[in-house]
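Late entry, evening session. Most of the bench is empty. Finally got around to the prediction I had been postponing all week. Sequence below, unchanged from the version circulated by S.P.
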Amino acid sequence: MTTGASATETSKTTYREAMREALREALRSDDRVFLMGEDVGHYGGCFGVSLGLLEEFGPERVRDTPLSESAFVGAGIGAALAGMRPIVEIMTVNFSLLALDQILNNAATLLHMSGGQLPVPLVIRMTTGAGRQLAAQHSHSLEGWYAHIPGIRVVAPATVEDARHMLAPALTDPDPVLIFEHGSLYNASGERTLHPAPVDLDHAAIRRPGTDVSLITYGGSLPKALVAADELAAEGISAEVVDLRTLRPLDDEAIGASVARTHHAVVVDEAWRTGSLAAEVSARIAERSLYELDAPVERVCSAEVPIPYARRLEEAALPQTAGIVAAAHRAVD
């Protein structure tokens, strides 16, 4: 731990532990908060995030559910309408498709359809992304699908700090908030501020300043973009790394300001290229910042195939540091 003013004291932890601490704080600070999902209790969560919370808070606050996403997401919506603050965990993003009717046709629409009378303060957490040899059915990156839906907020914490501190403001949002946690990040470690300023869910973050090219990304691709920025720096290219953090609503101002500084843009998105969030970001750059660009926007996305199981094939299908570096060269050379 570093010394100095309390506002700058830090502690080293993992993404998994930071998320667990955020859940613990939420459960302690508000009796209306409870966690439910498949195996979140006795098993401690499919990825170990809720380990120990059942013993600390009991089965009323940490609830194991049947294997029915539509049922327990629907129960979460009902609990939110009744004044509770439910946190629903869905194991992996592909399983959320079994609750898409509940999320799209109920959670996202009720505040609007009731004329503002029925807010749905529901938080849904789910693991997303590939890179762990979970094959085609458990390696999706569908954040862009959900970012398409009005009435919900979509966030993707990519750092230990955001994993720890995004949950609290999500629980105060009158709209449903979907939190996408990339599976490759759970074991990642980093420093978090012990007494941070409140996290603003409306704005992107500049993770590394630069002057030559903007690397715009989120979630599990952020570490790759940061490594790419290091490699580009060794070649004399200054890359600015923009972490979108919130995917709906997108921070257009931050994206535009970065492009205005660097005049080149590379958008990195683990989703498939066609109809992707990268396509949306690229379109917005073209609409708002076209005359700031000195070259076309580059996109680095996953190959248009179901994600393979075999490790080398999976690595070949996903955005990697080398591909980000090559895209940056195409933009600036």
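Two things to note before I forget:
The radius of gyration is 20 Å.
The CA atoms of residues 153 and 177 lie 5 Å apart.
Will write this up properly tomorrow.
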